[in-house]
């Protein structure tokens, strides 16, 4: 991404509500996507990963998808939580990330600062 291009960065850690995505920016970064999924668990009647799937389609239809960079933390590794809501969050994040990766042109997994390219469409 060239430095001269405009970027709108939205931190979902600070505010787990998705912003209105405008078309002025060259790129839009959504950081902390797992917190958005957690917010969906508490506020939606529908499964969060299905909400994310519909959201992806909306982004694709509007043309925002090609400018979007989504950053999410892997929450599925380690010990399975005892709390049912935490387990649901873990599962829903995994499903949501699968939907995001299915439609993404490029997917990177970064672990301890080491990038591993999982997918790249040319």
Fill in the keyword field for this structure.
Rossmann fold; two-stranded antiparallel sheet; single chain; three-stranded parallel beta sheet; 3 helices; alpha/beta; 122 residues
The gist of it:
This protein has one domain: Rossmann fold, CATH 3.40.50.
Provide structural commentary.
- With about 120 residues, the chain is an alpha/beta fold.
- The chain has a single domain, classed as P-loop containing nucleotide triphosphate hydrolases (Rossmann fold).
- It contains 3 helices and 5 strands; from the N terminus they run ββααβαββ.
- It has helices at about 35-45, 50-60, 85-105, and strands spanning about 5-10, 25-30, 70, 105-110, 115-120.
- The strands form 2 sheets. It has a 3-stranded parallel sheet with strand order 1-2-3, with no helix packed on it. A two-stranded antiparallel ribbon has the order 4-5.
- The relative contact order is 0.15.
Low-confidence residue ranges: none
General form: globular
Give the biggest sheet. Answer: 3 strands, parallel
Supply Rg: 15 Å
The CATH architecture is: 3-Layer(aba) Sandwich
Say which CATH homologous superfamily is assigned: P-loop containing nucleotide triphosphate hydrolases
The amount of helix comes to: 25-40%
Topology:
Elements: E1 7-11, E2 27-31, H1 33-43, H2 48-62, E3 68-71, H3 84-103, E4 106-111, E5 114-120
Parallel strand pairs: 1-2, 2-3
Antiparallel strand pairs: 4-5
Helix pairs in contact: 1-2, 1-3, 2-3
């Amino acid at each position: 991404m060239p430095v001269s291009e405009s970027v709108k960065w939205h931190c979902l850690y600070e505010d787990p509500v998705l912003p209105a995505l405008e078309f002025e920016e060259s790129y839009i970064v959504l950081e902390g996507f797992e917190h958005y999924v957690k917010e969906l668990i508490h506020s939606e009647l529908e499964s969060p990963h299905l909400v994310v799937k519909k959201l992806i389609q909306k982004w694709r239809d509007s043309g925002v998808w090609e400018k979007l960079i989504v950053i999410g933390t892997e929450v599925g590794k380690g010990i399975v939580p005892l709390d049912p809501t935490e387990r649901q969050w873990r599962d829903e994040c995994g499903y949501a990330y699968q939907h995001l990766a299915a439609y993404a042109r490029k997917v990177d997994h970064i672990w301890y600062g080491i990038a591993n390219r999982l997918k790249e469409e040319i």
